[in-house]
Amino acid sequence: MGKNALSEIKLTLEGYIGQKIRLKANSGRRKTIERTGILEETYPSVFVVKLDEDQHAFNRVSYSYADVLTESVELTVFNSENEQVPVKYVKTPQ
User: Fold this and answer.
1) Residue 1 — pLDDT band, cuts 50, 70, 90?
2) Would 65 disulfide with which of 9, 19, 31, 48, CB 3.0-4.6 Å?
3) Could you give the residue ranges of the DSSP H alpha helices within the chain?
4) Residue (of 64, 56, 59, 58) closest to 89 by Cα position
């Protein structure tokens, strides 16, 4: 399940490269960080988000697909009509 689930998340995110994305990351001790930016690139183990320049002290952040799987990072993609599309792994019944 683990390897296949991570591959599915990666493939899903590849379809959203170049689109606006909002991420909500759990940074421990009941702290949650919200950031917005553009999904820039996907790599074998991580994906990179280029952050909006005005809002953040640094340019890019990267997270692993396992972060999405374990729900320590929640992703929301904005499609061309500016509608929000949540990205999460949903186990399909076999």
Assistant:
1) very low
2) 9
3) 2-14, 65-69
4) 64
- By residue count, the chain amounts to 94
Distance of CA 41 to the CA centre of its chain: 11
Nearest to 71 by CA among 38, 1, 24: 24
Q: Which residue has the tokens 């940074």?
A: 27
Q: Name the residue among 63, 61, 42 with its Cα closest to residue 50.
A: 61
Q: Which domains does the chain have, with CATH numbers?
A: 2-87 (2.30.30.100)
**What is residue 23's DSSP assignment?**
E
Q: What is the pTM of this model?
A: 0.82
